[in-house]
Amino acid sequence: MTFKKFEKIVNICLLIFVSIAILWFSADIFTAKKVDFDNITKIETEFIKLEKYRIEGKISYSYNLYVGQDSVYKIIADNVDCFKVDSFMQNTNAGDLIEIYINKDNGLKFPDLKSVFGLVKNRTNYIYLDCVNEKVDSNKKLIPMMFGFFALVIILSILYTKSKNKGKTNA
Questions:
Q1: CA-only gyration radius of the chain, Å
Q2: Please, where are the H alpha helices in the chain?
């Protein structure tokens, strides 16, 4: 097997892998639904602590919410902008009773994730459901446009490279 054949096989495998990843990610975005009160579970529990969490190499961050009997819930990066964290931390101490609202359906990516979509203490809401739903709508528009732009750039670069190589072989 020559190096060119090996390189071609690797490129095809890489293209298949990237295509599957994009399709999986896109399917999750397109099937994402707005959070509604019929699909939410309310949990009243004792607040323990809130911990900011960032995966190494990522720009975004999320929060781990420790409550009750060593339970951990996640405020995902998509919802951090909707979370009034400073106000929550000023008004909440360990041992305070809080209400957590969790979506029963977390989509395709993380179906078992205990993701917080609402956080209330003493009738004060610290994660706004309207904001979360606006983000779902925004992602359904913005992310496909980004994928489309990315695909267009790749196609144009491939066509440019092929036309450039074709000009060299004809000369």
A1: 23
A2: 3-31, 85-91, 129-170
Q: Please tell me the distance from the alpha carbon of residue 35 to that of residue 134, in angstroms, as a whole number.
A: 10
The CA-atom distances, in angstroms, between 128 and each of 12, 83, 88, 101 are 44, 7, 13, 11
Contact 84, 102 (CB under 8 A): no
CB of 102 within 8 A of CB of 114? Answer: yes
Distance from first CA to last CA of the chain, Å, rounded? 29
Q: For tokens 């951990």, what's the residue? A: 72
pTM: 0.62
Counting Cβ atoms within 10 Å, is residue 132 exposed (0-12), middle (13-18) or buried (19+)?
buried
Q: What is the phi/psi pair of residue 128, to 5°?
A: -95, 120
Q: Residue 52: which of 41, 61, 43, 42 has the closest Cα?
A: 61
CB–CB of 62/75 below 8 Å?
A: yes
| Residue range 121-156, pLDDT digits in tens | 999 999 877 888 787 777 777 767 777 777 778 777
More confidently predicted of 23 and 32: 23
pLDDT tens for each residue of 87-115: 999 999 999 999 998 876 655 455 556 78
